[in-house]
Protein 1
Amino acid sequence: MKKYIQIMPHLLLVALLCLGLLPGHAIAESSMNIATTPATINMGARYNGAKIEIKGSAPAGSAVIVRFVGEPSELHLRQKGKVFGLLWMNVGTIKLENVPKVCIIDTSVPFEKIGEAGAPYSLAGTVKEVEIEKDADTHGIDIANELLLLKKHGKLYSESEQGVIMGPEKDGLTDFSTQLNVPSSLAPGKYLIEAVAVKDGKVIADATDSITAEMVGFPAWLSHLAYQKSLLYGIMATVIALISGLVIGLVFGSKGGAH
């Protein structure tokens, strides 16, 4: 009986460690959290992009990757070519699947120092996951690279390094923070904020948060009108076009008369 009583505390200690109920290095290695400000991106008439602030904590000694990503979607690209050597026309289509609508990345250290464990979270790694189906001759063009250039041009894809600021270590964790620039071309919808901690060549922790981009004010009213009351929207658009044409005609007509 005495031996049984002496063994029980050790069994209890092992059980608590397995369940993760005791503090210590093992818990810190798997702990990570993030918080995003603001929770909603308001896209009003004066919206010209936004800054979002991301703060959190990660296991001490780890490199941190922060990503702002949109839901993967399907994208169709049209290939232009000369027909009969005279006219430029669409000569084929290229369908891309699993293409994130947006992917903005920042890290605490360069990706080359993070190693292979961080490669899938880079822009190059993200593009590698894109599935390409084509029914047109691409003439050896690197479609994945062209997609990357296209998205970068629209500021929907970007990759920065060492913008994630790491704080002092406390209780096996380190605070971190960064600011990401969201482009004006962002579409309304829900987006994911993802933070990943890499240490000793492997991902040891991750955390996610969500953020919503939504139209407000006049753009929201106009969008509602276009989708919910299309007839009224069409009439208004026609009236505005007629008035604009009349005003332009009067302005240029008066200038022509003056000469």
Note: The domain at 30-214 is CATH 2.60.40.2550 (Immunoglobulin-like).
Protein 2
Amino acid sequence: MDVESDVTELRKNYKKDWRFRLALIGTGLALVVVVLGAFTRLSHAGLGCPDWPGCYGHLLWPTEGHEIDAANQAFPHAPVETDKTWPEMVHRYFAGMLLLLVAGLTYMFWRRRGHRGFVQSHILLGLIVLQAAFGMWTVTLKLWPQVVTAHLLGGMATLAVLWMLAERLRYRKRQIPPHEFTALQNLRPLAVAAVIAVGLQIALGGWTSSNYAALACPDFPTCHNQWWPAADFSQGFNIAQQIGPNYLGGALEGEARTAIHLTHRIGAIIVSLLVCLVALRAWQAGSPRWALGLVAVLGLQVALGIANVVMSLPLPIAVAHNAGAALLLLSLLTFCYRINTVQPSIRNCA
């Protein structure tokens, strides 16, 4: 009987380990999808394939001369650009792999409906299906900024939920001295506020990118050599703008794009202050590694943002800026989760 119990426990641990492994692999795959999405968007390849889910009617993309000629005849308003077809399809295939992985992970949790992580896995499946729809609408609605921004946010949300699922499956509650516990609990509201601010800043970054406003201010720290240039905020943030016909290259006037860029800069200042304050409080609470880590990730992200402006948006740095936003979000989420799971140690008195 004891042997059977041990075997049963080993099987349970094996299955649990596979759930964790899949969640961790899914996190890495989701990060790849987010980075590929940024590369596709920033290389202006979002409409590299004018149809969906294929590319000019191909499972991959047209490469041979006769295939390109046939594609150009079938889509006369969207001639084949070979440097833009492959980024779009590579992004789609990696997204499809992520969908299959999340579906498999959800099935594993569905078989054990009372297990922790069950709800998160089903939220993930819903998110990833919604992401597929946003991917389709991104193409069919010709890069409508509202859809492109929502697609970016959906990718970040998928990444965050996958990472938190892996964290929940791996991390165990630990005990810390009562005074450290109290200090960390008092820090929780500020840390949550920082997470919300980073989420809003990511949304602003998506809106900036989808409206091609990243270079609306070509200098730093001023904008057009002014601290407060002419800016049209009503048009820059008019989310009720009508659909179409094509948003490749953007459809807003210069002052509207300037308003978007300025708002993103202001958001960066707010996020920086909040994260630095969280890091300071974490240091005071006895978590110097977390304090230094958060400041390091923030510093990298700010440096990448400045480099994008002064270097006129080089593609590698622009893509890295998207990855840095994801890293900052995951770092803060992990810190919040660790705060939420610590417990005060109970010392026995002699």
Note: Residues 218 and 309 are 6 Å apart (CA to CA).
